[in-house]
Fold this protein.
Amino acid sequence: MVIEIDHKSGFCFGVVRAIGEAEAALAEGGTVFSLGDIVHNRLEVQRLENLGLQTLTRADMARAAGCRMLIRAHGEPPTVYAEARRLGIGIIDATCPVVARLQARVVQAHEQMRPVGGQVVILGKRGHAEVVGLTGQVDDPTIVIENEADLTQIDFARPIHFLSQTTQSIALFERLGAEMRRRAADPAAVRIDDTICRQVSGREQHLTEFALRFDIVIFVCGRKSSNGKVLFEVCRRANPRTYTVEEAAELLPEWFEGVRSAGICGATSTPGRLMEEVAEKIKNININNP
C-alpha cells in the first residue's frame, strides 16, 4: 500500500508560536498556566501537561495569582488582561498575530457602525475561544452567525459590517456575504471584510486535490478543533472514503480492505507526530492484512 502524509498539514504558525512560548516558559521553571487548552488537540495538551503546564478556566484564574499565564493563539478579550493585572499574573501573550489584527478590526468596525446605527456580524462558531475573544473586544453587541439560517438575526434595513473568524470556510463566507447584499435594503451598505487566515484557507484547495489522489483518506484532528471540522468536510466532499481519527488507536482494519493507497492529513491543530503514528499503524495493518 502507498501511504503518504500531506506535507502541508499540521500546526499553523500561530499554534507553533504558542507551543514554543509554553515550552520556553516551562524550561525556565516555576508554575505556568494556560488559559484554556493551548491547542484543540487532547494529546498535545496532555504532552504539555506532562511537562508541567497547568490548564485553567476564566472562573479559576485566581489559581494563577503570582504566577505566569499563557494567552493561547485564539486570543482573549481585554477583560481577561485586566483581571490578570488585578491578580498579579504575569501574561505570556501568544495571541496569533492574525487574530490580533482581526481583534483590532472588530473594534474599528464597531466604531464605524456606531454613528450610522449599523451592525457588526461575524461568521464563526459560537462559544469558540477565538470568537469569544472577538466579541469581547467591545461592549456593543456583535452578531455571530454560523450558517444561512442565522441571517434572521440581522436587520437588513441597517448597515452591516461582515467579518469572519480566521479559520472559517472562504466559500461559506462569500456565500453568506452575497446573500446579505441580496437581502439588504441598500446593498452598498453591506461591507464584506474577509478576515480569514490564508495559511488556513489555502489548505482547502490543496486538500481537495490531495484527497482525490488516494483510495482512502485518514484525517487526524482533535474532537474540539473547529478548523478540523471544516477541513475534514473538504476532504470528505472530494473523497467519500475519508475517516477522521484523533489518534492511531482509532483506526479500524476493515477500512483498508482492498485499499492500494492511503493519504494522511490533518488540521492546523494536529501535531505532525500524530500523523506519523497513524502512518506507522496503517503500515502494520497492511502487513497483517496483505
